[in-house]
Structure formats: C-alpha cells, structure tokens
C-alpha cells in the first residue's frame, strides 16, 4: 500500500484551513487568473490560492497573509486543469518516470498506467515499492490491475493468481481493472476473470475493455459482465454502438492507430454533438509519436475538427476525472483539488508555457525546471539484463514447415515456407528472414521464418518484447549472433548488426525492456531505428510495436509465445517451444 491511505492527513487539512483564516500564507497566489470553470462552462477570472500541492481557494478574495507566498500575475494567460492520460502504457521503451517528466512539459500531469510489466517482471511487493516511489513524483500516477498476460506464458496461474490479482485490486493507487485483452476467455466461461471484475465493481473501480471489431451483441454482453469503457473504436459507427450500450469511449490517437481526425469527422457526420462520454488517449504510443505532444495534441486536433473549445478541454480533463470518480482531486480548477494547472497563451493552443504539477513548477516560461529527481533503478529492482547461458550455432535450426507473415506492423498470419532455410545466410532477393524467440532464462526456444519484415536486415536482436524474452531476426545467422552478444553486453536493448559491425543500438538497461534515457532522446533513437529499417525493406511505421506484439495473443492470427507458435483464432498451440 501507499504510505498514507488518505490524500491529505488531518494535520495537512488543518493547515489548509489556517491558510483561509490568514494564519498561514499560501505558497503560491495566482492573481488575475482567467481560468476554465467547468461548472459554469465558461472562462472566469479569479484569484487562486495554492498551499503546497492543493488549491485552497478560487474566487475574488485576496489572502490576508502573503508573507511566504510567490505571487504570480496571470494577466494575458489562460489557465486550464492539468491534462489526464487515462490509458498509458508507460513501458514502451521509455519508463514511467521519464514518460511522466516528458508528459508534464506538454501539460499532461496525471497518468493512469498499465501494470503489465510490473506484474510480469517483478515480485509483487517490489512492484508496490516502485509504485510508492512514483507516487512521490510531481505527476499524479495511478495504475491498472491486469487480469491476463496478453500472451500465452508459462506459470500464468502463479503470476495471475487470485491472491496476486486481489492484492493489486485492493491497492490504493489502482483505480481500474483491465484492460480486458483476454475477454474471449470471459465469454468462454472464465469465472475467475468474472470474479475479479465483480471485485473491481465492488470496490467502485472501473473495468477497461479491449474490444476491437466487437459486434453490438458482444458489446452488450461485455457491459453486462461489467466493462465500463473501451478505447478500440475505429470508426464513427463503432463509437455510436459503444455509446448506445452505455460505454464511456476513449478516442484513440496512437502510433499504430492515429485515428482521431477521422473519428471526429465520422461522429460529426453521424450527428453526435455531445462530448461528455468521450475522453482522449494516446494508448502508449512509441516515442517518435510524442514529438508533437500528448493529450495537448489531441485537444488541438479536436478544436481544429470543430469540437467546441471547452468540450475539447473537458475531454482531456474533467470527463476523465468524473469517469474515474476522482473529480474531487483532478480535472478542474476548484477549491480542494490537487494543484495541477496549465498556463496557456491562447485557448486554441493547448500546449502550455508553464505547468504546475502538485503545486510545483515543472515548466516555467517555456523551460523545464527539472523537478523530476533521478532514480536509483537498481535499488527499485530494475537491473540490467543478465544472461547466465550461452547461445550457440546449434540453436539456429530452422525446419518448421510454415512461418509468420506480416500483414501490417502488428497483424501476422501463417504462410507456407517454400525456401530452403538450411543455410547460414538467406538471399536478399526476398523478404523472408530467420526468426527466433528465446527464453531470457535460456530454457527454451522457438525457430521459424518471418516474411514481410525486411529483405536486407542481416541481424537484429531485441530484449524488448511482450514478456522480456529475446527476439532474433535476420538474414544471416552470424550477424544475428553478433547482435545478440552486443545486446547482452548492453544489459538489454535493440541491436542491429551488419557485416560483423554494430550499426544501430538502443540500450534498454532497465530489465532489458526500458531505457533510462529521456523521452526526448528516445524520440530521436526511435526515429533513427525506423529510418534505418525502412532502408532495409521494413514497410511499416512502428517497429517498436512490431517487436512488442509478435507474442501478443489479443491480436490475430498467429503469434510466437512462451508456449510455442499459437493460433489465436482457434486458441491452440500449433508447435510447442523446443527445450534447449
């Protein structure tokens, strides 16, 4: 659990009252503040008193005591609440701390985070200690509780045991169950998942769906089971169907689904002009996609697409807070709320020039104040990847009769292998590569062929995957081995080898799945990876998600997993992994 169950202890609340009584000075006073008041749906002007991390008063009065107060004249600025990302995947090469820091510079001061990596990579108590550390950052950090691994893993019944899931659900920082990537199991009669959903509802916590392509009847069934929201609508009609069944709808704009402009056009064509049941999400985009901002960018797009300005801001603030039952803390500028405030120069430009997060300046007059302290990652359980086993050329045996064909960046289908793979190097005249998934503990492997990834990549090694196991791809077995060895030296990472030379690397020393670099630097590294792979025949736009989703069984049609090659539609292992 967190160190304190209540957001503010009794003594803190007494201090807040003393500020109103004039016995204690506010820490910050915002005067002449034109701010968005969502109760009246209007821009209003007031004085805003802040003490430490809380808004103490909003109105016409001026404090009697300003002895220890920073007074800021907000004339010429517009103030809006800090933005909320309701569906963050904070482990997409970046880490939760670096993402929080980066997001704050664009006004997103609250993140509601996926716990998948914590559940899969860490012992529960260590994960909770990490969450406690994140709680102390300027960003308000909340978490999900996953009910399944999103892939076929070994010992799933231990990782997602009833006691583990119940402990996660009961955690004060966890405010939703899901996302429900394993919902077909629920339809097939998985009563344990249904029980966990029941527990989430009993605790007044939300349940997030994951229902791409779901029919109207399936949506109705999932609502009856207890789902509250879904972020997978890809057309205006799918949004309409979700609204009709009572869902909150997250409008997505991510690196693999940059859908927001089309979604807004199509809901307007359908005559939908109410926005209270909408919120925004970037759904854990790859670093390069965040170059132009996060929730602020989605608000900007919405305004350009004709959404009324106040509604556009509400979709990134108060709508989210109301949905998650945290309106008393977040989503608006009002007495008693956490002091998360963005300072804008224009209502049509939602990227702030200054940002307060928990009453701290994290951005001031366009400059990062470096309010996010460096972390000791090793102490928190995120050590560099250490392999106590050796890869040998005997592991590079490829005789499977069919392989995996990429339809796009993340969808893969089976195909019949017709080339002779009994060579150390494949021709660059086709787009088939050697493809391996190897247990990070060295106990098993699965070897097949991958079509459609590249026709020229000689050797790529990645410890970045759904489960943290090792992916090897390439035309040349020796280059794949060379990339693997460099990845081990780095303590994890994404590495490409050509002509026995390392030509590109992204170190991931945090358990082999995350970087300790800033998101700004990762934006450039991600763009470099994409640009390089495109010169080698990669035809898509998101290699980070390609690597991540090779094992993800919430997507069709065929996946490589810890259990073996898996047929998603028929829910069966086609070829088991080979023990080493």
UniProtKB/TrEMBL annotation:
It catalyses: adenine + H2O + H(+) = hypoxanthine + NH4(+). Residues 79-362 form the Amidohydrolase-related domain. The keyword Kinase does not apply. InterPro entries: Adenine_deam_C, Amidohydro-rel, Metal-dep_hydrolase_composite, Metal_Hydrolase. Its EC number is 3.5.4.2. SUPFAM superfamilies: Composite domain of metallo-dependent hydrolases (SSF51338), Metallo-dependent hydrolases (SSF51556). It is an enzyme of class 3 (hydrolase). Residues 410-570 form the Adenine deaminase C-terminal domain. Keywords: Hydrolase. Belongs to the metallo-dependent hydrolases superfamily. Adenine deaminase family. PANTHER family: ADENINE DEAMINASE YERA-RELATED, N-ACETYLGLUCOSAMINE-6-PHOSPHATE DEACETYLASE. This is adenine deaminase.
């Amino acid at each position: 659990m967190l160190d304190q169950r209540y957001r503010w202890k009794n003594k803190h609340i007494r201090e807040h009252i003393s500020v109103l009584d004039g016995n204690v000075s506010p820490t910050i006073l915002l005067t002449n503040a034109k701010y968005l008041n969502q109760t009246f749906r209007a821009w209003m002007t007031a004085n805003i008193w802040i003490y430490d991390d809380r808004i103490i008063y909003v109105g016409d009065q001026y404090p009697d005591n300003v002895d220890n107060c920073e007074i800021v004249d907000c004339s010429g600025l517009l103030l809006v609440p800090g933005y909320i990302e309701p569906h963050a995947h904070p482990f997409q090469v970046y880490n939760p701390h670096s993402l929080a820091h980066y997001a704050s510079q664009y006004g997103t001061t609250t993140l509601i985070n996926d716990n998948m990596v914590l559940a899969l990579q860490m012992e529960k108590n260590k994960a909770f200690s990490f969450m406690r550390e994140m709680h102390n950052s300027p960003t308000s950090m909340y978490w999900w509780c996953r009910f399944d691994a999103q892939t076929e893993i070994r010992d799933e019944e231990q990782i997602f045991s009833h006691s583990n899931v119940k402990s996660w659900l009961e955690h004060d920082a966890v405010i939703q169950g899901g996302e429900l990537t394993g919902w077909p199991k629920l339809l097939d009669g998985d009563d344990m998942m249904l029980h966990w959903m029941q527990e989430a509802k009993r605790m007044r916590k939300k349940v997030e769906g994951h229902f791409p392509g779901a029919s109207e009847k399936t949506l109705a069934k999932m609502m009856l089971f207890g789902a509250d929201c879904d972020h997978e609508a890809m057309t205006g009609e799918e949004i309409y169907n979700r609204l009709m069944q009572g869902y909150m709808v997250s409008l997505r704009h991510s690196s693999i689904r940059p859908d927001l402009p089309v979604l807004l056009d199509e809901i307007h064509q359908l005559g939908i002009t109410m926005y209270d049941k909408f919120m925004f999400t970037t759904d854990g985009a790859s670093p390069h996609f965040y170059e132009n901002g996060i929730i602020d960018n989605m608000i900007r797009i919405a305004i350009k697409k004709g959404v009324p300005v106040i509604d556009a801001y509400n979709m990134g603030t108060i709508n989210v807070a109301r949905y998650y039952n945290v309106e008393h803390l977040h989503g608006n500028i009002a007495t008693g709320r956490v002091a998360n405030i963005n300072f804008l120069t224009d209502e049509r430009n939602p990227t702030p020039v200054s940002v307060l997060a928990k009453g701290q300046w994290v951005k001031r007059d366009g400059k990062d104040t470096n309010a996010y302290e460096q972390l000791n990652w090793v102490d928190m359980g995120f050590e560099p990847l250490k392999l106590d086993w050796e890869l040998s050329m005997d592991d590079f045996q490829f005789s499977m009769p069919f392989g995996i064909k990429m339809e796009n960046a993340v969808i893969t289908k089976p195909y019949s292998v017709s080339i002779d793979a009994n060579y150390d190097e494949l021709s660059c005249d086709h787009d088939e590569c050697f493809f391996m998934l190897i247990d990070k503990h060295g106990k098993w492997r699965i070897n097949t062929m991958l079509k459609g990834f590249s026709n020229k990549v000689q050797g790529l090694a990645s410890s970045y995957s759904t489960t943290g196991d090792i992916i090897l791809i390439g035309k040349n077995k020796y280059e794949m081995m060379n990339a693997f060895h460099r990845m081990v030296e780095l303590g994890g990472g994404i590495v490409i080898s050509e002509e026995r030379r390392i030509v590109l690397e992204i170190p991931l020393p945090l358990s082999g799945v995350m970087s300790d670099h800033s998101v700004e630097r990762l934006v450039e590294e991600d763009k470099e990876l994409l640009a390089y792979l495109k010169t080698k025949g990669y035809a898509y736009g998101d290699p980070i998600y390609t690597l991540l989703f090779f094992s993800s069984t919430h997507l069709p049609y065929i996946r490589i997993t810890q259990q073996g090659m898996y047929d998603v539609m028929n829910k069966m292992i086609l070829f088991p992994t080979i023990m080493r």
